[in-house]
Amino acid sequence: MLDDVDISVENSLEPLLDANEWNVIETEFNPTQLHHKETVFTLSNGYLGTRGSFEESYPEDFAASMIHGIYDDTQISHTELVNCPNWLPLVVEVAGEQFAMNSGEILHYERRLDLRLGLVSRDVRWRSPQGHTVDLHFERFASLADQHVLAIRCQITSVDFTGEITVTARLDGEPKTQGTPHWQTLNQGGIDQILWLQSQTLHSGLGLGMSAKLIIDGDETAAVSVKNADFPTLGTTFECKPGKTVIVEKIVTVFTSRETDIPIAAALERLADEPRYTTLLAAHIAAWEQVWQNSDIIIEGDRQAQLSVRYNLFQLLSVAPRHDDHVSIAPKTLSGFAYSGHIFWDTEIFILPFLTFTQPALARNLLTYRYHTLPGARRKAQEAGYQGAMFAWESATTGDEVTPRWVPGANGELVRIWCGDIEVHITADVAYAVWHYWQTTDDDEWMRDYGTEIILDTAVFWESRVQWNEQRHSYDILDVIGPDENHDRVNNNAFTNLMVQWHLQSALALWDWFKHVYPEKAAQLVKQLNLTTERLHRWAEIQERIFVNQDITTGLIEQFEGFFQLEDVNLADYEPRTKSLQGLLGIEATSQKQILKQPDVLMLLYLLRQAYDYNTLKVNWDYYTQRTDHTYGSSLGPAIHAVLACDLNNPTEAYTHFLRAALVDLEDVRLNTAEGIHAASAGGVWQAVVLGFGGVRMTQFGPMACPNLPSTWKRLKFRLQWRNEWYEFDLQPETATSVVTQEASVPVFATVQAVMGNG
To answer: Catalytic site residue 561?
Structure first.
């Protein structure tokens, strides 16, 4: 646990750091960390993601490639993002002995993820069981310049071996997804230097075409041939001697029926046009350079923070769909199978702020996905007996609810999952993300065509979801789950109720603007959504009278009705531990105690931080923070606690929470990184740095900063876009800091004095 150990550079990330803080480096292969490191070394390009498995494979590895939108039917979770055909297999044989990390002797090993270039490489000096020594250098990337192109380069140098080396490459057409088959091969083959594979998902009928070619450099006599066995393979054999180097390139193209009618034809056509590896790599690097120009964060004085922040941003930038607005980012990105690749509130609340401020076109794609799922949200509302649009807690292709209602428990018993039925705050969360995208970008056209309909039709849902309480003369929202999922089926969850209040207020303000600016579109929506005067008046009444139990004197907000009557416990009594408190105590026992899985009231105060004063935040922080499972509860919590600790002028405590988020994958802080990247935590890291330590707030004059930097940070530099203008922040402790636009090199408003806390 981070509370109990020194997580300084010296004993934490030092083996993973390099001089310029752009590279994650592994210098010793540890088979017990195989699955953790497969996640860490994941590569994506906004279309496809591939876990960091070895090209030659390894016993019990979790090799996986996932493509946005490629779902297939499955038991329990309805549909899942499937493991797609594996493009990696590349095998080197020295004198008939196959290179593998678990055979012979590894004399030198280094694996590197270059975050700036989006490149994974591996250097191995291997002595075969027969005593032959060769140097192997592997590189691979998923092209950011062309999402349909993947490439591997293997450089083989003999150290002391004279004789034959054989290299073979293939495509694995029928991988399983956690033991479940999802593919059937329709056609496969090879000719000359090319392989092809035509596949289809078993239930959803989605087609995939993949092709590959092998190119040899360094031996003019080496020819590539096709072996047409059960799995067509490309192979080459060449003579080697000490000092000789041969380079093998494997270029792969992939298309699915989501982009083209005949994927295999598109894959073969693209492959025929592809240049050599170095040319493809140059285009890929140029694309990454453009992305980093707007999204990088520079931290001076803390190498651990610098690398870990860049790592988290890299995983989000690499997975965000660039050419598709019918898909979104799952909680494990394209790096693991947990949560079946379904879409949660993680995307809108945790990931979107980073993209909205630095890559608004990518944020727009993700929000447009929600627009495309409105029909599913309307079906869900109707099936539950409500009106309007009720977003699915777990969404996939159509927006229909795909949360399983029953899952097997530890002892085989069935456990009821209520999230899909009653974790309704996601409907307000989506509206919140839409509103803030609009406020940040001034993208009126998108609001006209997409965003306004989302906010208004979800407001219609809330109107039908609330219930009038005659005794209190207030509106209740009964039988819900808030962000703190340790407590389900509760009444008047403060987060939900106050987000609904915000939602209805914002819907009314939006409508007042919209009907004047876009009268024709407004007339369409009036008819489509039945936006009568009576309906709008009812929204105003609901938001005025919605129930929240808040102590008028202290400002303390009760998380839900009856929370203060639950058993109070001292979380320190359960230390040390390596699992969540719910995992220790059980679901039922935890629900009877004041133990939070993640911030709930504090999450509300964060999202609506302009509406609450310091004292309200302080009293709720003091009450709820000590009752939250920070270490093994939800990974969504620490980054938010980091921002709020900065708001309370306590950067030291903020830094502890920040590290829990920033290192969650690199250091496997929660012991579950093998399941995939923690995407929401990664987005929270950006918010912790920029909105927390950077202290950025949006004002009527534009973005302003009131920094609260950790004691070791000498400089914090980043850019963000606000209403079509770029602002550059260069923050340093106890020095005057200017905020300048890209267009002008003079301050656009008053110089900001950095504020340092005592903590």
So the answer is: no
